[in-house]
Each structure stands twice: as C-alpha cells, then as structure tokens.
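Quick illustration, no need to memorize.
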Amino acid sequence: MANNELLKLTAHQVRERKFDKVILAVGSCEAHGSHLAEGTDTLVSYMLSCKIAEKVDNMLVLPPITVGYSAHYDTFPFTLTLSYDTVTAVIYDMIESVIRNGVNHIFIMNGHDGNIAPIEIATRKIKEKYPEARMVSLPAWWVTAGELLPPDTFEVWDGLGHAGEGESSIAYYLYPQWNEPDQAKGWVPDMLPKYVDVKWDFAELTDCAATGDPTKATPEKGEKMTEVLVNACVEAINELDACGWDYRTKGIR
C-alpha cells in the first residue's frame, strides 16, 4: 500500500505522487484518566487520518499538531498546553504552508475539545486571505461516532467523556500497547445544566482525569467507531472530489 505520510516521504516522492489534498490531525498531550496514553488525542486523530488517506485518491497526511490548548486539564499529571493564540497561529501557518505548496483542499481531523475554537478562528482567517481555499473539518469525532452508531452501542452516557467509554474503546482498538485498562475509572458529571455550555476546569468535573465510564470500554466498540468514522469522512471527501470541491449552491455559481 502506498505511503501517504509526509513525514516518511522524500521530496522526489512528493513530486511524483502529485497530491491534490491534505489531511491535518490536530491533537494534544494531556492526562486521559490514568489508563490511556497522554497523546491519545494526537494518536487517534493521526491514525484516523492515515486510514482515511488510504481510501481516497491523492491525499497527503501532514505531520500532526501534537500539543493543543489544554490549560483546562492542567490540574492532572503532565498536561502540556499552548496558548489559544499559539494554537491558532500554528494551525494557520500549517494551512498557509499547504496553500503555498499549491494545494487548496484541506481536511482537518481534530482530536481535542480545546482545539475547536482555534481551528474555527484559523480557518476563518485563512478564508479571508485565501478565498480559493477549500477547508472542511471533523471537529468532534467523539460526538460524530455516537451519531453514526446504533443507539445501544454504548452503555453509559452515550459513550461520551474524556477518556470515557468511547474514547477508551477507540484507544484500545488503535493502540492497545500504550494503555493500562486496569487503571480505568471515571465520573459521569451529574450537575451540569441543560442547554448551556459550562466553561469548566476539568478538575471541577472529575478527580481522576476521566469522565464517563471507561470500565465499559472494549476494543470491539473501538473498531466499530473507527469503521464508521473513516467511512463517513471518505464519503465526504469523495463527494467533494466529485464536484471539484466546488460546494457552492448551484444557482449562484
């Protein structure tokens, strides 16, 4: 199978392959309970990106952004964080580098809640300067997976949570060697009001760096999550390729 990872390609190979779109994983490095690798957000988003690129034509996998905005997790062991402005600037600069290399079609695979706002700001700023750029993102795969799978897939809190049932399951499936399932525990937040977005510090929700119930996680659930997420992204990219990434409403073209 052809290698699509820029980190592992020579300049000659990049020229020969004629990539016309890229996928950028944006992750973090922070405590995920006591049972998942600290790089879980980066590992999941990058591994999903590689699997997606294997199934579509001419997609280059960029090096992942391995540290994001994680200040709201820094009560827990060895959380690394960049500032919001820095994360936004890094994403912006990465995309601008892609455009300077002649590629205008960009897919962003986000792995971390703290990166959602920086991705939004960076891409809006890129669009202002480079209106020809075509950018799409999957901002919260942990929500999308629950929407795509049957409602009885998860046992607790719809599989949600930081290092909860869903995230732990996909980690157990994608890289079992870097996790410690016997250390899994978590809390389901029970005091958050409906309809509004509480701007919490994570230590206000849990004392073990995990929410949800990771004890219900299995690699089998993780495999199902991976399959539906990859297929959904591949379908979206193929649809965009079919129309030349010209998603404008037909009547105003």
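Residues 219-242 form the longest helix (24 residues).
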